[in-house]
């Protein structure tokens, strides 16, 4: 590979450093019980100021990830969404914002659940997870665009593995909150749709958004049913992850034109086994 096709490690490390410092500040603020919280009234969830700061970090990270990935030569041949401001046009690559953003959101949402029982340890693990995942994602996204088929395949497999990891963390964190179904299903559905889009965007067809929406809708409906099942948030997150894994892989085979009865049976068995294992674990918990 030529040097022009190598990631800009200086920019990647700088962005990761900024995110880790920012996330450390957010954790310190969130640990204070007297921190400002937005109460929207009614039964709407209370929004801690920490989530506003997380949103700011997500914006910074998305902008940085966009600039880094658009420096890849292959991006010059891609049709990207364009914002026409009249005097100038701005191209952006929203498909490459998802995993960098969830590296922050998922790490914060999941590990903050353990901050009371594991003070300090959860804080350190969250920072390491967010920084490490973001670093790997930014590098893997770059190499996933490589003209070298083997290199691109490795990059995409790494991104898929991280997507499943972040899906589990995000689903578990929402399940833990105990929000009423209207809100928890919307959050899980939105997370599922975005993470499904992350995987499906590497396939050959252009139905990514519709298929991703179907995955999110299915997960939202599954969460509605799970709200009537008393189980731990970790087991709830695992079951939602299994459903996500099965749905995304079936749709991936569909988009590639390789969906066969044997594949449907295979993923059907995986889904049933996952349900059985989680049910037994829930009964023993």
Would you give an account of this structure?
This protein has 9 helices and 4 strands. The protein is mainly α and 285 residues long. The protein has 2 domains: 1-147, no CATH class; 180-285, no CATH class. The chain has a two-stranded antiparallel ribbon with strand order 1-2. A two-stranded antiparallel sheet has the order 3-4. A hairpin with an 8-residue loop joins strand 1 (37-38) and strand 2 (47-48). The N and C termini lie far apart (52 Å). The mean pLDDT is 86.
Short key terms for the protein model shown above:
4 strands; 2 domains; mainly alpha; 285 residues; two-stranded antiparallel ribbon; globular; single chain; two-stranded antiparallel sheet
Order of H and E elements:
HEEHEEHHHHHHH
How many H/I helical runs?
9
Biggest sheet record: 2 strands, antiparallel
Proportion of residues in extended strands:
under 5%
Strand arrangement across the biggest beta sheet? 1-2
Kindly report the average pLDDT value. Answer: 86
Q: How much helix, percentage-wise, in residues?
A: 55-70%
Radius of gyration from the alpha-carbon trace, in angstroms? 20 Å
Low-confidence stretches: none
> What is the total tally of β strands?
4
The span between the termini is 52 Å
Quickly count the domains. 2
Categorize the overall geometry. globular
**Helix/strand/pairing category:** mainly alpha
């Amino acid at each position: 590979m030529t040097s022009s096709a190598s990631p800009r490690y200086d920019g990647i490390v700088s962005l990761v450093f900024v995110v880790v410092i920012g996330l450390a500040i957010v954790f310190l603020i969130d640990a204070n019980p007297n921190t400002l919280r937005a109460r929207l009234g009614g039964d709407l969830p209370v929004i801690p100021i920490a989530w506003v700061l997380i949103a700011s970090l997500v914006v910074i990270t998305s902008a940085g990830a966009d600039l880094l990935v658009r420096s890849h030569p292959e991006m010059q041949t891609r049709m990207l969404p364009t914002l026409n401001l009249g005097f100038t046009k701005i191209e952006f690559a929203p498909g490459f914002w998802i995993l960098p953003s969830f590296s922050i959101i998922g790490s914060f949402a999941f590990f903050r659940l353990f901050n009371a029982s594991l003070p300090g340890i959860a804080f350190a693990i969250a920072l390491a997870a967010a920084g490490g995942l973001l670093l790997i994602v930014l590098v893997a996204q770059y190499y996933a665009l490589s003209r070298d088929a083997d290199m691109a395949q490795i990059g995409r497999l790494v991104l898929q593995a991280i997507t499943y990891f972040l899906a589990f963390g995000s689903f578990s964190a929402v399940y833990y909150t105990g929000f009423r179904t209207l809100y928890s299903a919307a959050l899980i559905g939105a997370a599922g749709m975005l993470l499904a889009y992350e995987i499906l965007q590497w396939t050959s067809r252009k139905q990514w958004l519709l298929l991703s929406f179907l995955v999110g809708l299915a997960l939202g409906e599954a969460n509605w049913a799970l709200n009537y099942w008393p189980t731990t948030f970790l087991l709830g997150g695992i079951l939602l992850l299994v459903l996500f894994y099965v749905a995304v892989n079936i749709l991936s085979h569909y988009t590639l034109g390789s969906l066969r009865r044997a594949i449907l049976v295979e993923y059907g068995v995986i889904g049933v086994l996952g349900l059985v294992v989680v049910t037994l674990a829930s009964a023993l918990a």
